[in-house]
C-alpha cells in the first residue's frame, strides 16, 4: 500500500490567535475635570467682582435627598444674587432656615403630580413686579406647573425652567414638541418687551460637544435628537444666545449632568443640559459663565453660574 498522502495544508502551522488588546479605561476628555462622587466637605471661595450680579441654576434631583447629601454647603458658599433650583420634587416651600438666611424673596411651585418636577427661584434685591408659574402659551397650562417660573423686574424678565424630558424610548416626544413650540412663542413675546435671562435644566444639548457619547445617543436618547436640537435652535433663533457656548465654543468635556449609573462621573460621561440663555443685547454685559464641576454629589447635576457686569450708568445715558 502506498504511503498516505498528506492533505493539503497539513504541513502548515495553525494560525496564531491574536491576543486582543486590553481596552483603555474610559477617562474624562478634560483631564483637569474633578471626578468626585460626593460633595466636598470644603468648597472654594466663590468670589465675585464689585457690582457683579450672579445668577445660578442647579437641578437638585429632589430637595429632601439633596439636603441629606450636603446641598446647604454649596448654598452657603455661593454668593448668588438669584438661584434657580429645578427638579425639587416638592409642591410647596420648605421651612429651610439656610435658604431663608441667604435669600430675601422666593417662589416655589410644584407639579400637579406629587413628587414630580418642581421648581423654585430665590433672590435678593428688588421685589418682582410680576410672577408667573405656568407657561401661558401652552394649550394645557396645568401640565406646565412645576416646570417654569417667570419673574418680571424693572429692566428684564428672568425665566427659570425645568424643561420636560422626551422620555425613555422618546415616548413623551409629542409633549416635548408641544412645550418647545409654546415656549418659543412665550420667550419671543417677552423679548419684545424687555431683555430676558433664561436659565435652568433645558433638557437638551446644543451640539455634539455637549454630550460625551454623541454618535451612539443621536436620535435615540431624550435630549439629543434632531427634533429637540432643532427646537432649541429655533427658540434661540437670532434673538438669544446660549451664553456658556458663546464664551467657551471650543471646550470639550464640560458637562452639567453625570448619571449615577455605569460610573459615569469617573469616566467623564456626561451631558451639558443645564444652561444660561440671554437676549442677544444682554450678551455684552455677561462677564462669565461657569460650570461648578466640583459641586457634584448632592445631585447628579452640577450648578451653572452666570455673572453680569454692573451697568455703567453714565454710558447708558
From TrEMBL:
Residues at the site labelled Transition state stabilizer: 203
Site (Interaction with DNA substrate): 301
Requisite cofactors: Mg(2+); Mn(2+)
Region spans: Disordered: 1-42
GO molecular function: DNA-(apurinic or apyrimidinic site) endonuclease activity; double-stranded DNA 3'-5' DNA exonuclease activity; metal ion binding; phosphoric diester hydrolase activity
Start-end of Basic and acidic residues biased regions: 1-27
Site for Important for catalytic activity, residues: 274
Active site feature: 162, 201, 301
One GO CC term, this protein: nucleus
Positions of the Endonuclease/exonuclease/phosphatase domain: 58-301
Protein name per its UniProtKB record: Endonuclease/exonuclease/phosphatase domain-containing protein
Amino acid at each position: 500500500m502506498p504511503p498516505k498522502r498528506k492533505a493539503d495544508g497539513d504541513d502548515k502551522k495553525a494560525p496564531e490567535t491574536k491576543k486582543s488588546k486590553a481596552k483603555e479605561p474610559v477617562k474624562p476628555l478634560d483631564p483637569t475635570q474633578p471626578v468626585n462622587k460626593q460633595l466636598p466637605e470644603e468648597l472654594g471661595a466663590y468670589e465675585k467682582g464689585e457690582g457683579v450680579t450672579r445668577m445660578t441654576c442647579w437641578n437638585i434631583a429632589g430637595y429632601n435627598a439633596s439636603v441629606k447629601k450636603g446641598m446647604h454647603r454649596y448654598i452657603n458658599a455661593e454668593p448668588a444674587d438669584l438661584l434657580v433650583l429645578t427638579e425639587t420634587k416638592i409642591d410647596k416651600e420648605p421651612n429651610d432656615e439656610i435658604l431663608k438666611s441667604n435669600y430675601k424673596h422666593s417662589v416655589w411651585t410644584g407639579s400637579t403630580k406629587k413628587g414630580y418636577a418642581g421648581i423654585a427661584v430665590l433672590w435678593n434685591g428688588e421685589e418682582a413686579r410680576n410672577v408667573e408659574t405656568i407657561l401661558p402659551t401652552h394649550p394645557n397650562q396645568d401640565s406646565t406647573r412645576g416646570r417654569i417660573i417667570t419673574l418680571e423686574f424693572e429692566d428684564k424678565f428672568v425665566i427659570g425652567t425645568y424643561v420636560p424630558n422626551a422620555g425613555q424610548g422618546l415616548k413623551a416626544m409629542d409633549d416635548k414638541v408641544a412645550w418647545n413650540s409654546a415656549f418659543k412663542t412665550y420667550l419671543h413675546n417677552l423679548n419684545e418687551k424687555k431683555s430676558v435671562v433664561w436659565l435652568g435644566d433645558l433638557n437638551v444639548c446644543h451640539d455634539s460637544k455637549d454630550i460625551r457619547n454623541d454618535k451612539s445617543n443621536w436620535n435615540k436618547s431624550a435630549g439629543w435628537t434632531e427634533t429637540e436640537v432643532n427646537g432649541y435652535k429655533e427658540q434661540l433663533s437670532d434673538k438669544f444666545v446660549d451664553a456658556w457656548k458663546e464664551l467657551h465654543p471650543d471646550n470639550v468635556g464640560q458637562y452639567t449632568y453625570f448619571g449615577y449609573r455605569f460610573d459615569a462621573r469617573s469616566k467623564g460621561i456626561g451631558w451639558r443640559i443645564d444652561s444660561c440663555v440671554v437676549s442677544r443685547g444682554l450678551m455684552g454685559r455677561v462677564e462669565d459663565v461657569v460650570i461648578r464641576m466640583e459641586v457634584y454629589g448632592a445631585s447628579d447635576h452640577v450648578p451653572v453660574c452666570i455673572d453680569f457686569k454692573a451697568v455703567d450708568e453714565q454710558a447708558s445715558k
